[in-house]
Amino acid sequence: MNLTLKIWRQKNASDKGKMVDYKVSDISPDMSFLEMLDVLNEQLVNNDEEPVAFDHDCREGICGMCSLYINGEAHGPDRGVTTCQLHMRMFKDGDTITIEPFRATAFPVVKDLIVDRGAFDRIQHAGGFISVNTSGNTIDANAIPVNKHDADKAFEAATCIGCGACVASCKNSSAMLFVGAKVSQFALLPQGKIEATDRVLNMVKQMDEEGFGNCTNTGACEVECPKGISLENIARMNSEYLKASLKG
Amino acid sequence: MSGILNSSIGRKFAMALSALFLMIFLLQHFAINLLSVFSADTFNQVSHYMGTFWVIQYVMQPVLIFGVIFHFVMGFVLEIKNKKARTVSYAKNNGAANSSWMSRNMIYSGLAILAFICLHFYDFWLPEINTKYIQGDMSGLLANGEFRYFEELQHKFVDIWRVALYCIAFVFLALHLLHGFSSAFQSAGANNKYTKGLKGFGKAYAIIIPLGFIFIALFHHFNH
Predict the structure, then answer these.
(1) Are residues A107 and A73 in the same domain?
(2) Do A160 and A83 share a structural domain?
(3) Percent of all residues in chain B with a pLDDT value above 70, rounded to a whole number
(4) Is the pTM higher than 0.90?
(5) Considering A111, A143, A166, which residue would you say is the last residue of a domain?
(6) Residues A101 and A130 in one domain
(7) Shared-domain flag, residues A74 and A170
(8) How confident is the model at residue A66 (pLDDT cuts 50, 70, 90)?
(9) Which chain B residues touch A216 with a CB distance below 8 Å?
């Protein structure tokens, strides 16, 4: 496959940045999208040009490190996959592919296609955990009975890898699917109920302070989420937050 | 509880509550307007009751006006905040791949409805306030001793351009409600086994009510 790539190039956080066109040839349809970018970078290095900076780590769709807004969609046109699991067979020979970083005020561009998603870490620090006694008297989690339905729902929420596709896809750059999943994974379990009030209040407060937008329930986040996190989690967070606000 | 309206979720909840209130009002407004199709006398009697009963005039009417203003102002506040959350736009964005046109353009359908409300107030509400509270005529009667409400309603729909504007506005209302109805429940934290049924009911509401208003406007245009 021969392709034209329109890629966002930005030297650093303070640079204005611009779209730059590149040509790549002999791309195999079996390559992953990141492997195609590797080919481009090899070409750039051989030509003494600056390679395109992009985030990646496991390349197995697990770590949530890769991002990229491809042809107007987070993680590209395929469903239920991260960019590293997107294959070039989703494109046709002669295609022009537009590649941009995830755009949000809360996700500032570091370089080229790399954005700083530290805002998610700070939200997690605000309450995305449970306090466990580790002094030797820790209760085995399996000793606490959990309703199967709740356990399944909590597990589904916990599959969120925090990649930020929800923020990137949302027209308002809202982080509510991410925060909803992180609130839900504990709210549904007995271990998480003890700190439920403080957790949701603190996480939502941090989310608002980071400058994410307000959810208007377009559902774009759910469609683009590589892990299929449901909007149900946002509704659960809303309900948890309202209950917590009445209590607090 | 303090400062709940300063949080993103609190604002969403307030938007949802005002939306639910306005949707109940819309249903009541539609039911009364529909009476005008079946019986001019009944429409006149109900209109006179609504226009003179103190609870409706001095309690419900200010609450309604507050609800309308709150919904619009909060809508604009949220829109401004949302714009600030992404200051650099995408060079290519395929919104249609993951969301409906209605959900992405609530602010524009809302603006169309706001423009319509201004016209509607100019057509009906301001003359009503003038007659009752400035001229002090609470009788609801014309010079010939008959009720004025049905007469005034039909008179307004003589002009085809006004009817056309009303019909266009009701299309925007339908588009707004098609997303807004189920969205209000999601914002209020309700996404459960009833959601599918509620979405179906919401779609029916969003189509039937505006379509009914269009029917009423056209009915009076062709039957005056």
Answers:
(1) yes
(2) no
(3) 99
(4) yes
(5) A111
(6) no
(7) no
(8) very high
(9) 78, 82, 103, 106, 183
Residues A188 and A80 occupy one common structural domain: no
Q: Which residue in A211, A224, A241 is closest to B98 by CB distance?
A: A224
- The answer on A55 and A121 residing in a single domain is no
pLDDT digits (tens, 9 = 90+) for B35-73: 999 999 999 999 999 999 999 999 999 999 999 999 999
Number of inter-chain CB pairs under 8 A, A vs B: 142
Q: Nearest-5° angle of CA B44, CA B47, CA B53?
A: 130
Picking from B91, B98, B190, the nearest residue to A169 by CB comes out as: B98
Tokens 């009701």, residue located = B170
Full DSSP string of B98-112: TS-HHHHTHHHHHHH
Measured between alpha carbons, how far is A101 from A157 in angstroms, rounded to an integer?
25
Q: How far apart are CA A248 and CA B10, in angstroms?
A: 14
Question: What is the band of A132 on the pLDDT scale with cuts at 50, 70, 90?
Answer: confident
Beta bridge mates, A24: A3
pLDDT higher than 90, residue B2: no
Angle at B214 between CA B211 and CA B216, to 5 degrees: 110
Q: Is the same domain home to A93 and A204?
A: no
Domain count, chain A: 2
